[in-house]
Design brief:
This protein is of the alpha/beta class. The chain has 31 helices and 34 strands. Helix 31 links the parallel strand 31 and strand 32. The radius of gyration is 38 Å and the shape is elongated.
């Protein structure tokens, strides 16, 4: 578009503060609507679909959010440059425990009973008000980071349309007979008073090493007086719910008589697994009375260890169970079906009773009189003391083990029976494993590793929560005949009830009821959905499918790309996979990039309470977003590995990548012709121009390959190496060409550097979008056909004519020789500016004459010989460790060589003085000098014109000098006059 429009905001070159420049670029993008145009100017027919996992807005964005945001921005920017239309909607998780626990603290309520006393409506109103509290901060930080995403058209899981689609998903699964209600034992949070799913606990490693009681207790056999089964448990509080003991049917057991142990234990007969005998009774004298098979005990009855509640069916007998271990404990497991998953399952198989001793808050019921009202874990020590006094405790210890905690309130979890709604994951596993084969996982090992293993071991998914703030489970049940009706849309609900609530949240939705044919009333079950069911429904709910956008969704599903950190293999990635397979029998995403976790600098988990999490806004202010983005890109965190945060590495990105690239432009600007357009270089003649264009094409190809394979970390090295090659090799070796009297060569160098910088701005655009934009805008005076933004440009095309593998290999060999030559000079204490007569190079690959000249110039040597050096006292040599490459210098310095070295050092020091005084290449000076040095006077007499050219001077005048320069043993005083 034409650039002369006055309304166009310009990005001006400025003294460099990356943070300030980035803010200027942000203002430019916003005013010119560059993001919106980058989407709208691409065709609908080339849509690239990205799903954005919704975060909770209950806290401020942290470094982990920016890590994910880097990938969520890099990939869409790249795909946009490849010609795709990439719509990016931000989303918000609004429901569930993260919000409820925060609001509970603010309202000062500590239980569901207190919430219901306050009123569900008031509580949910408070949740609604709190849920988007930090939206403005999120928008500001994400935008400042340079991530392009549509906040104005965001989706929220609490929006009525979103909620209706979630209800539809459940209804469809119910129709497919994939939903069932069941009373079973599962993980339960006593503080939140709700069941949780296994993956919620596993996904973020919500296990902690804790100390718990480890006790050995005895149960007296009914048919053999003075004979006791010895069992082991780490949950003394569950003993009041004991209904059975389990043994391993094919294991060997022993009955032993204790020969010591005081009045209580001496003479008692104890039964336990033979394999555990030496461990359990390591310090206790005993005598084996008899050996048994586990099967021999099946059906034996024993006396209840605590008889507070009488079971409603036959209990307190020995059963067989495969899960009984001989690796720990005694080989006899105490069974409390109400508080253990394995216990519950064996109880169903053996028709054992269920004894529930604990309320929903994890406190003992009144029937458990000694501990009624006490929190179960708080009662453990008292229970142990009672068992000891009753002669039922053999030994009490403590054990350190891994224990699950609530993913939101950090309370210890228990297993507890409750009624929940489940998805039949078991019935979907075969399909889920098959469709996983169609997903491209990055890193690849997650596909058949963590993700596949997670599917294989997954239990059925409990999707209901006994809470308040969430999408309601859309099941209505008749209070008389118990008939169920699952509702899948608002239209269906209105048809059944005559009501169409504007808000689907509790308690309004609970008031919707209708008459049953039996005379009863259909009323909604009280549960709400697990928030993971809601976020897993995101592909459909964000577009209100199937009520709107039906055709568009079905054409664009599954998504092309998603990304989050590794824990989401058990979270969002997993739940989306479950639901898409259940609904459509297909995967919901084609490509997934998984990051690792960023830890604190000391390797501990980042935590706001610990104060070890960096303030992301301070990082952005200090270094800029591009530096942080490149730091992420170059880190192994991009390969799903955990890394320690390193601020110094962000600073290094500025020093090694961003500043050098910008400095190349500032050098170009010094010499570029004003008011003259430059065309891209197509047919370079100079070997350095050919080489840098070959390197540019090589870099473009490597970066493109890495992006096409979604291995983003593979872009960091080629980008860094190219900047290094451009700034420390091409520019340094070409510097004299830019001020050369050879206009043709000078123009070629300028045109080449211009072409490289324009193309580099495009290659860097997805990764460091601010610097790329700033560079592109500052190159516009020389660009004949610029677009309004680099982010409206296509990805650079391949230029096969620049590919030159032979030249790249030659230059690589040359730089190896140069590196070795500089090392040899340093070792021999030969200054780089002191010319040498000759270099001998043996064992190198073939080097062309053009490259030979570069090497000689760089090493400051007059003559090249491709052979071993002759022996002599003035010869110094270096051999590579493998002995393949050998380099030698002739160190004999003639008077002419010494004089030339003197000249080079004089030029260097005068140019350093020019720089110190702020002079530019356009500032010619007169050099006033004073010296008694005969070599320097001779040098100035013979080479005044050549030296004047090198230091941009109009001439030398003998007189007073203000600045003393020392060159070896020679001294000269210099003043520069403009």
């Amino acid at each position: 578009m034409p650039q002369e429009k006055e309304s166009k905001q310009e990005i001006k070159s400025a003294p460099f503060s990356f943070s300030k420049i980035e803010e200027q670029v942000l203002a430019f993008w916003q005013k010119e609507k560059i993001f919106e145009r980058s989407v709208n100017e691409r065709s609908d027919e080339k849509e690239y679909v990205f799903y954005d996992g919704p975060p909770f807005a209950t806290g401020l964005p942290h470094i982990g959010h920016l890590l994910a945001s880097a990938i969520k921005d890099i990939v869409p920017r790249y795909q946009t440059m490849k010609g795709h239309r990439v719509e990016r909607r931000f989303g918000w998780d609004c429901h569930g425990l993260p919000v409820e626990t925060m609001v509970e603290k603010e309202l000062g309520v500590n239980s569901k009973k207190e919430i219901e006393k306050l009123g569900i409506q008031k509580f949910n109103d408070a949740c609604r008000a709190a849920v988007l509290r930090y939206v403005a901060e999120w928008r500001r930080t994400i935008t400042r980071f340079g991530r392009w995403v549509d906040f104005d058209n965001d989706y929220k899981t609490m929006d009525p349309k979103y909620m209706e689609s979630v209800i539809w998903v459940f209804g469809e699964l119910y129709k497919k007979k994939l939903i069932y209600e069941d009373f079973r034992c599962s993980l339960y949070c006593t503080r939140c008073e709700t069941p949780l799913s296994n993956f919620e606990t596993a996904m973020d490693n919500n296990y902690q090493e804790v100390e718990d009681p480890s006790i050995y207790i005895v149960f007296e056999a009914m048919k053999k007086p003075n004979t006791f089964f010895l069992s082991w448990t780490t949950t003394p509080w569950t003993l009041s719910a004991n209904v059975a003991l389990a043994v391993k049917e094919d294991a060997k057991y022993v009955e032993v008589e204790l020969t010591k142990g005081g009045k209580v234990w001496k003479g008692r007969h104890i039964i336990l697994a033979k394999d555990r005998l030496s461990f359990v009774f390591a310090d206790q004298p005993y005598q084996i009375v008899k050996e048994f098979n586990g099967a021999d005990f099946i059906g034996w009855e024993y006396k209840p260890i605590q008889g507070f509640i009488k079971p409603d069916k036959e209990a307190h007998r020995v059963v067989a169970a495969d899960f009984v271990s001989l690796e720990d404990g005694t080989g006899i497991v105490h069974i409390a079906p109400a508080f253990g998953e394995d216990d519950f399952n064996i109880s169903k198989k053996e028709n054992l009773p269920m004894v529930l001793t604990v309320d929903d808050g994890g406190k003992f019921l009144p029937a458990i009189a000694p501990w009624a009202g006490q929190y179960v874990k708080a009662a453990d020590q008292s229970i142990i003391e009672v068992l000891k006094n009753e002669g039922k405790l053999w030994r009490a210890e403590t054990i350190t083990h891994s224990y699950p905690f609530c993913w939101r309130c950090a309370s210890p979890l228990i297993y507890k029976v409750q009624t929940s709604w489940y998805i039949k994951v078991e019935a979907l596993k075969k399909k889920m494993l098959a469709t996983n084969e169609k997903i491209h996982w990055v890193p690849e090992h997650l596909k058949h590793g963590r993700f596949q293993k997670g599917i294989e071991s997954a239990p059925d998914w409990g999707v209901s929560r006994s809470r308040y703030w969430g999408v309601p489970i859309p099941v209505w049940r008749c209070d008389r005949c118990k008939k169920e009706r699952v509702v899948g849309s608002l239209d269906e609900l209105e048809k059944l009830s005559g009501k169409r609530p504007h808000d689907l949240h509790r308690p309004l939705i609970d008031e919707v009821a209708w008459a049953c044919a039996c005379g009863g009333i259909f009323q909604r079950v009280p549960e709400v959905f697990d928030v993971w069911f809601e976020s897993g429904s995101m592909p459909y709910a964000q577009v209100h499918y199937p009520f709107e956008n039906k055709e568009k969704f079905e054409v664009t599903f599954p998504a092309d790309f998603i990304t989050e950190y590794i824990a989401q293999t058990r979270g969002w990635f997993y739940v989306m996979h479950v639901l898409s397979n259940a609904l459509f029998g297909k995967h919901s995403f084609k490509h997934v990039v998984t990051t690792g976790t960023i830890l604190a600098e000391d390797g501990s988990k980042m935590s706001k309470s610990k104060g070890n999490a960096p303030d992301v806004n301070l990082i952005l202010d200090r270094y800029g977003a591009d530096a942080l983005r490149y730091y992420f890109l170059a880190s192994s965190v991009m390969q799903a590995e955990s890394v320690n945060f390193s601020e110094s590495e962000i600073a290094e990105a500025v020093r090694k990548i961003l500043l050098p690239l910008w400095n190349v432009f500032t050098f170009f600007k010094l010499y570029a012709p004003e008011g003259k357009k430059l065309r891209p270089m197509r047919e370079p003649k100079h070997v350095l121009d050919k080489w840098i264009l070959a390197r540019l094409e090589e870099t473009r190809h490597e970066v493109e390959g890495a992006m096409e394979s979604y291995e983003l970390w593979l872009t960091a090295r080629p980008l860094a190496e190219f900047v290094n090659d451009l700034s420390t090799w091409y520019l340094r070796r070409s510097r004299d060409r830019f001020k050369s009297d050879n206009e043709e060569d000078k123009h070629e160098a300028l045109t080449t550097l211009y072409s490289v910088l324009v193309t580099a701005s495009k290659i860097f655009a997805p990764f460091t979008p601010f610097l790329a934009e700033h560079l592109y805008q500052n190159l516009k005076p020389w660009n004949a056909k610029p677009k309004d933004s680099v982010h409206l440009e296509p990805w650079p095309k391949s230029h096969k004519e620049f590919v030159d593998e032979k030249l790249l290999q030659e230059m690589s060999a040359a730089r190896e020789i140069i590196e070795a030559g500089h090392a040899l000079r340093s070792e021999a204490k030969l200054k780089v500016r002191q010319p040498l007569a000759a270099v001998w190079v043996h064992g190198s690959a073939a080097i062309s004459k053009n490259i030979e000249r570069l090497i000689l110039d760089e090493l400051n040597v007059k003559q090249w010989t491709s052979s071993k050096a002759p022996k002599g006292k003035n010869i110094v040599s270096w051999k590579s460790p493998a002995g393949k490459l050998e380099i030698s210098f002739d160190t004999n310095l003639t008077d002419d060589l010494k004089l030339e070295g003197l000249r080079r050092e004089l030029v260097r020091q005068i140019n350093a003085l020019r720089k110190k005084q702020g002079l530019t290449i356009r500032d010619k000076v007169i050099v006033h000098y004073n010296t008694d040095s005969a070599p320097l006077l001779k040098l100035l007499k013979n080479q005044e014109a050549a030296i004047a050219k090198d230091i941009i001077a109009s001439g030398f005048e003998y007189g007073e000098g203000a600045h003393e320069l020392k060159i070896d043993l020679e001294v000269i005083k210099i003043s520069l006059e403009k």
